[in-house]
């Protein structure tokens, strides 16, 4: 009897060791699955969602996705060693899709605001963002932003710029008549044909639009509202932290070695220095 008990006891340490090793492997596997960066690298691809109707950042040209973000994200993919897979979605579905975990990353230029910074994790800045109006070229009634008092202005629905237009409108003698649109191309078309007195979005966007159609569109300066920076976003969850850091690290490398300058010159006709990290939003 004593011999039997001794044999059982002698096997307990090895059984406990086996269980410990099994638990460690299981925990390691679970952690790897939970970590977004590990998952993306294991799959070899990163699914990026955006709305491809926001030139010069995201748009279709002869059926091909092009723009500032596409060029930047292709370089990010090279740095991370993964294939980039791009999804074109209506803007109203982009943030909700990220929340629902339909994808891990939004590759659209997102204005950094306090509310968004509380909910989402921003990468290193990808561009500066100042708000500006764009008008029809021959519209002599509008020389300054204040001339839009009581006028019809188009904005992308649920955008940061819509909030900025509404805030600026409150400072004018008559409120701006805000018209919401699904994308910028529709806004530019209605400005050019006179259905809108002006459109509003970031300065990089209206500058590009006026550059493409100098006979029909003109930027109204100076800029208005509070300027901020554009960044890409992911979910603000613990498992996403290393992923966001890796993308920011890739962007910083792209800035440092001059690749960003080339992309900026291509799409904006100029270059701009950007901070390494996203500054604290003012609004």
Quick structural gist:
Helix content is 44%, strand content 27%.
What would your notes on this structure say?
This protein has 283 residues and is α/β, with parallel strands linked by helices. The chain folds into two domains: 39-127 and 229-268, 3-Layer(aba) Sandwich (D-Maltodextrin-Binding Protein, domain 2), CATH 3.40.190; 129-227, D-Maltodextrin-Binding Protein, domain 2, CATH 3.40.190. It is 44% helix and 27% strand. The protein has helices at 2-34, 36-43, 68-80, 91-99, 114-119, 160-169, 184-192, 203-212, 241-256, 259-268, and strands at residues 45-50, 53-54, 58-61, 64-66, 83-88, 105-111, 120-122, 127-136, 152-156, 177-181, 198-202, 217-235. Strands 1, 5, 6, 7, 8, 9, 10, 11 and 12 form a nine-stranded mixed sheet that branches. A hairpin with a 2-residue loop joins strand 3 and strand 4 (64-66). Residues 1-33 have low confidence and may be disordered.
């Amino acid at each position: 009897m004593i011999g039997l008990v001794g044999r059982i006891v002698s096997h307990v340490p090895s059984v406990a060791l086996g269980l410990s090793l099994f638990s460690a492997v299981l925990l390691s596997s679970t952690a790897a699955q939970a970590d977004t960066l590990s998952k993306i690298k294991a799959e070899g691809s990163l699914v990026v969602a955006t709305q491809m109707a926001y030139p010069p950042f995201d748009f279709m040209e002869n059926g091909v996705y092009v723009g500032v973000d596409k060029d930047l994200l292709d370089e990010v993919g090279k740095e991370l060693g993964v294939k980039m897979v791009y999804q074109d979605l209506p803007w109203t579905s982009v943030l909700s899709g990220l929340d629902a975990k339909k994808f891990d990353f939004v590759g659209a230029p997102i204005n950094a605001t306090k509310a968004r910074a509380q909910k989402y994790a921003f990468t290193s800045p990808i561009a500066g963002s100042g708000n500006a109006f764009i008008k029809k070229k021959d519209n002599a009634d509008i020389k300054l932003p204040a001339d839009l008092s009581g006028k019809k202005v188009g904005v992308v629905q649920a955008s940061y710029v819509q909030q900025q237009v509404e805030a600026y409108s409150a400072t004018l003698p008559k409120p701006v008549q805000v018209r919401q649109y699904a994308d910028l191309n529709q806004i530019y078309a209605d400005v050019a044909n006179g259905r809108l007195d002006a459109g509003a979005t970031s300065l990089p966007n209206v500058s590009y639009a006026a550059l493409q159609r100098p006979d029909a569109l003109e930027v109204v300066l100076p800029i208005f509202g509070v300027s901020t920076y554009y960044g890409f976003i992911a979910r603000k969850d613990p498992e996403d932290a290393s992923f966001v850091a890796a993308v920011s690290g890739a962007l910083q490398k792209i800035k440092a070695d001059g690749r960003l300058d080339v992309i900026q010159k291509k799409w904006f006709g100029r270059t701009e220095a950007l901070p390494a990290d996203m500054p604290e939003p003012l609004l």
